[in-house]
Amino acid sequence: MVGERRRLRRRRGVGRGVARVAAPLVVAAAIVVLAIGAVSQIGPASGPDRRTVDRSFAALAGPIVARSNASGAALNTLLGDGPSLLRVAFFSDLDSLTSATADDDRQFAALTPPEPANDAASRCATAMDDRRRGTAGVASALEGLLGGRRGLGGGDEAAAAHGLATAGTLLASADAFWASCRRTLHRAPGSARLPASVWVTDPGVWSEGSLGRFVAALVSSASLTTAHGLALLSVSTDPASVPGASGVSVLPPTSALRVLIVLADQGNVDEAGVTVVLTAVPQGTARAPAPVRARTDVAAGHSVTLTPPPLDVRPGRGYVIDITATAQAGASVSASLPVRVSLVPPPPTTTTTTTSATSSTVHSG
Question: Bridge partners of 281?
Fold first, then answer.
């Protein structure tokens, strides 16, 4: 009996020891859970963490705001200097603006979570989105007025002025949202500071009268008037030709003549759907081979290299290769290349192998 009572006391001691070890473990687990929750969701009462989030948000937003301010300055310059710009530069600036504001909007949206205090992030995000939409509205109105990069249509001044006025309202709203975001963040814990950002520096520019005059100036601008200018920069053949008599290029014997063309757009509008036609007009009574065609687009100020399918020619005959390039908008350019295909191929190149003989002399004594 005495031994049994001792065993029971030992078991109770072990149980109390397990309980004493388990209690701190439970408390530690609870602390870990609470810590994870505090990191994943910062509450309003967590002042130090909130200050860190707000200041980090402001630091990350700074470079995006700087780029947005540059876009705002570029837009104001376009509104002031637009009628004096060259057409290619005008539309290039518009494309850059719409692309930059779209990038700013995407990058700003990626800054959260975690969210800064008091809905500041949503107000700043609204400002960036309004700027994106406002810039897109400006581009749409001006492209519609001037016919875009291809110079097609345009001329509706009333529609353009209305589109610009709508865009100006969005941009003014964006400035107001940004100012509200700055105040909200600065008043929150940490007093984080965002850079100032104002696009509509002169509301008079976006007034009905100013926009009407601006639109009229764009329509009457000589530098923005469409000018088509297709050009054939170079024409060469494959097989390659050599100069012959009377300006006729001489080709080696072939039945498939390729013509290599470099086509340039030296105007100020993009030319779409340019069709290039090559025709070989034979000298004498020989049958004319079927024309060949190629199709391409070429942007203003750029050039493209074309290799149409080969022309079916016959050795020993002369041809005049007529080349014509015509765009959908009506711009056209043409050139002629007189060639003669040789009947007899040039003599083949022969290779002579020289063998050196080695002689041995035997002397007897």
Answer: 320
> Which of 331, 347, 344, 337 is closest to 311 using CA atoms?
337
What is the DSSP secondary structure assignment for residue 326, as one 8-state letter?
E
Percentages (nearest 5) of helix, strand, coil residues in the chain: 50, 20, 30
Q: What does pTM read for this prediction? A: 0.75
CA dist 54 and 51 (Å) reads 5
Neighbours of 219 (CB within 10 A): 16
300 token code pair: 């203003």
Q: Is 365 helix (H, G, I), strand (E, B) or coil?
A: coil
Instruction: Give per-residue pLDDT as tens, 142-194.
Output: 999 999 999 998 899 999 999 999 999 999 999 999 999 999 988 887 788 99
Better-predicted residue by pLDDT, 343 or 7: 343
Count of CA atoms in the C-beta half-sphere (13 A) of 225: 4
CB 136 within 8 A of CB 100: no
**What residues contact residue 74 under an 8 Å CB cut-off, 6+ apart?**
93, 96, 97
Specify which residues 311 forms β-bridges with.
257
The single-letter code of the amino acid at 46 is S
Domain stops at, among 172, 200, 219: 219
The per-residue pLDDT for range 61-95, each reduced to its tens digit, is 999 999 999 999 999 999 999 999 999 999 999 99
Q: Is the dihedral of CA 163, 166, 170, 176 positive or negative?
A: positive
Are residues 63 and 197 located together in one domain of the fold?
A: yes
Are 84 and 181 in the same domain?
yes
How many other CB atoms are found less than 10 A from the CB of residue 63? 12
What Å distances lie between residue 208 and 79, 165, 212, 213, 239, CA to CA?
A: 14, 7, 6, 9, 64
SS3 label, residue 338: strand
Using an 8 Å Cβ cutoff, are 144 and 160 in contact? yes
Task: Say yes or no: 29 and 51 in one domain.
Answer: no
- Residue 132 domain boundaries: 47-219
